[in-house]
Design a protein that fits this description.
Number of helices: 0
Shape: globular
Number of strands: 10
Largest sheet: 6 strands, mixed
Low-confidence stretches: none
Distance between the termini: 41 Å
Mean pLDDT: 95
Strand content: over 45%
Order of helices and strands: EEEEEEEEEE
Length: about 110
């Protein structure tokens, strides 16, 4: 059984920054890909960023150049550094192990002036 626990959400003004963290339980963290998704109420969940075990990354076009996904295998933690935040980035952010049933509980990010 794997548990994913996100933290770091909150409210920020446009142009601000936040860093999300996702701590994973279990011993397989270093050999699995991890991803961040987000969801706006009434819309489908969308992929934001993904990182492979080797550290290769991929991003949604809407966040390229502003968001950075990273991982610390020693801490079983994946991060999402979000800079130059925009109101349209407002959503609940989830971490997940891609193609599995394992999702975190979500953390709210609100970007508003």
């Amino acid at each position: 059984q794997v548990q994913l626990v996100e933290s770091g959400g909150g409210s920020v003004q446009p142009g601000g920054s936040l860093r999300l963290s996702c701590a994973a339980s279990g011993r397989i963290f270093s050999i699995i890909a991890m991803a961040w998704y987000r969801q706006v109420s009434g819309k489908e969940r969308e992929m934001v960023a993904i990182i492979t075990p080797a550290g290769s990354t991929n991003y949604a076009d809407s966040v390229k150049g502003r968001f950075t996904i990273s991982r610390d295998n020693a801490k079983n933690t994946v991060y999402l550094q979000m800079n130059s935040l925009k109101p349209e980035d407002t959503a609940v952010y989830y971490c997940t192990i891609p193609s599995t049933r394992y999702w975190g509980q979500g953390t709210q990010v609100t970007v508003s002036s």
